[in-house]
Amino acid sequence: MDKELKHKTKKGVFWSATQRFSTQGLQFFTTIILANYLGPDEYGTIGMLSIFLAISTVFIDGGFINALTRKADRTHEDICTVFYFNIFISILAYTILFISAPYIASFYELPELCIVLRIIGTTLIIDSFSAVQATLLTIQLNFKVQTYIAFISQVTSSIIAIYMAYNDFSYWALVTQSIIGNIISTILYWVYSPWRPTLIFSRKSFNNMFQFGSKILVMRLMDSIYNNLYTLVIGKVFSASTLGNYSRADSYANFPSNNITGVLQRVTYPVLCKMQNNDTELSKAYRKFLKLSAFIIFPLMTGLSALSYPFILLLIGDDWIISAAMLQILCFALMWYPIHAININLLLVKGRSDLSLRLEILKKSLSIIILCVAIPLGIMALCYSRIITSLISLIINTYYTGKLINLGFVQQMKDLMPTIIISTGMWIVIMIITTLNYSMLAQMIIGLITGCTFYLIMSYAFNRSELLSLLSLICK
Fold first, then answer.
1. Residue 198: how many CA atoms within 13 Å on its side-chain side?
2. Do residues 86 and 128 make contact, with C-beta atoms less than 8 angstroms apart?
3. Rounded alpha-carbon distances, angstroms, from residue 387 to 335, 371, 404, 460
4. 51, 199, 248, 412 - which has most CB atoms within 10 Å?
5. For 151-198, how does the pLDDT look when each residue is reduced to its tens digit (9 = 90+)?
């Protein structure tokens, strides 16, 4: 990796992380405030619609965003083609949602879901008008502007949502937050992005990108359906309250996992694309990204798992205690997600979206079998099933990585083992502290201080290279 690219990568990681954790951090604290006004039922009501919105969003992207990012010789014609395709698909997806809304409401036996889905579904069309502008900034590794846009839209929408929740608008506070945030971010992307579309749509460009993007579309469609299948099953088989508790636990577990995964995917994909024809440099950069991501995410997830009860009870109260039990389990499933993401990114960098699709079909088939087995065993069994599917997915994901650049499951585990051992030790230490007869606040404070101290000391002694890499990334 040359010096200029290394500098852009570090800068991209910094600003991408800043965007993710500033906006998501704000969203995190907003949900804490909202959870004191809105209960599990309100969150469960909105959660029931997540699978339908997620599937629609996948169709809007269609894999063309990835195809556009990977295309080294992209033209204005290519960009315009993707822009108009996204808008067309978003309108089509919203039309289908609008027509389907009464049937979805009938499925859950909640009539109010009809109007809620028809209103919140407009975010699909709103987002389609800024997807290309955001992609072009990502290709340039320009996350600074995206950080400003995300922060402004998040602050504004959060203030409005809190005001509405305080004034008893129930789940409409969450609906309004989503719509307002998307409107503001779309406007700002048009203000700050110099690119403007012209009336061009190329069938040749469309077909060229479709060959690569269509496989990503199917892959992400399966991934989206599966990831939201739990909310569909829980909402139908159990109750809105149970789904609300699960959604909160999943949201808190996703906060560190998805944000770090998002940062890594946004930065590593365009960076690794620049090395796609140099396997030696690609392998070296890949291993570095892999080890650094684990060094950051593993202690965060194991620490959150160990502190789940004081964390939940202190922040949102005793009504959400079931979420604490779920959170403790889900952290161990989601801690592997950044590793999954980097492995999949490598296949896409090498232009093997066909292999990615093949892996997704296999993973999701096995995962659905595990989910079906877990359903009769109860909600906690569903949470444990996610750990099993995550580990199976890890083994499957690393198969082709080993074939392409000789970095399979065994080699990756060797690279990650020091971090795994230290993070596990930290989890044990914190768990011991939470069993002592301290108050919840004392457990939280002592657990945090002791866990961080343990991790840093052990990392300095046995995993110094990753600690120094992280310090170098932060300081430069």
1. 6
2. yes
3. 9, 11, 27, 29
4. 248
5. 888 889 888 988 888 888 887 888 888 899 889 989 999 988 888 989
